[in-house]
Amino acid sequence: MALRLGKRLLVFAGTFFAASLLIFGLLAIVPGDPAQVALGVNATPEALAQMRAEFGTDRPLPAQYLSWISGLLTGDFGTSYISRAPIGPQIMARAQVTAWLATLSLILSVLVAIPIGVLAATRRRKASGTVLSAAAVIGIAVPSFILALILITTFAVRLGWLPSGGWVAPSESPIGFAKSIVMPVVTLGLVQAALLSRYVRSATLEVLNQDYMRTARAKGLTARQAYLRHGMRNTLIPILTVLGLMVAALLVDTIIVEKVFVVPGLGDLLLTGATNRDQLMVQGIVMVIVTVVLVVNLIVDMLYVVVDPRLRRT
């Protein structure tokens, strides 16, 4: 177990630094000058040179990368090219909003997808199973922003039950917080649940067709008892894999949904930074997202050992 964890931590570190190099390199070749954006089109060459020296963008790229990554490892994200404010506090403040949205959406997707996927598999030869499978396929086909607009039109514009956008912190008003977050969470949760339910259905069908399940039924167990005692653990392994991958997709969808519902999260800050050519801001936000995805996948990899005891010997 300790050896497996050590190997995964090495992979984590290698992936982190590879991602940082890729992100820095891609943003470095993007056209545009942060100094020009900060000072405007009428800036003099002398002012631009002074601003580049202040930003550090006049140094060689390797020196810029080493300065950025060393600061990142110590929690210093640098200073925004546009607002001249420290980037770290801005990211942390917005990350709390995105964390609420992503966490609740992931919980909702799991709570919806697992029972629907299992029912779709166990009732595949019945009308109810066909309906559930069809609903999942439709859910996959509907983009998150389309579902968001449908919810806004229905519950905010026509019925007036919920606000069409905005954000209320839970410390300010729990009721206001619930109203402001319910539609974004439902949007993200249902879209991800549709995809996850298909994987749950596939994994459940594979387990139900195994010989040990037929043996358990032959010993007198009902289909439900056989699945709960012998099949569910094996179903969880591919589901955990998909959940690890879903986090990345969920965070990308969150960027779009935050913009639709005017939620001041990381997505809104990322798009603003990209628009203003605030390179350090964009790099910091993307690295936070990368780190979250890597940590979640590391946790998922460790959960494999809990679910499948055979891996404890590797």
Structure, described:
This protein has twelve helices and no strands. It has helices spanning 2-28, 34-39, 45-55, 61-73, 87-122, 127-141, 144-158, 174-208, 211-218, 223-260, 266-275, 279-307. The model has no long low-confidence stretch (mean pLDDT 82).
- Report the end-to-end length measured between terminal Cα atoms: 8 Å
DSSP helical segment count:
12
Helix percentage: over 70%
Radius of gyration: 24 Å
Shape: globular
Would you identify the regions where 5 or more consecutive residues have pLDDT less than 50?
none
Determine the strand fraction and express it as a percent band: under 5%
The average pLDDT is 82
Judged by helices, strands and strand pairing, the structural class is mainly alpha
**How many β-strand stretches?**
0
The helix-strand sequence is: HHHHHHHHHHHH
Largest sheet: none
Which features characterize this protein?
314 residues, mainly alpha, 77% helix
In short:
Helix content is 77%, strand content 0%. The chain has 314 residues and is mainly alpha-helical.
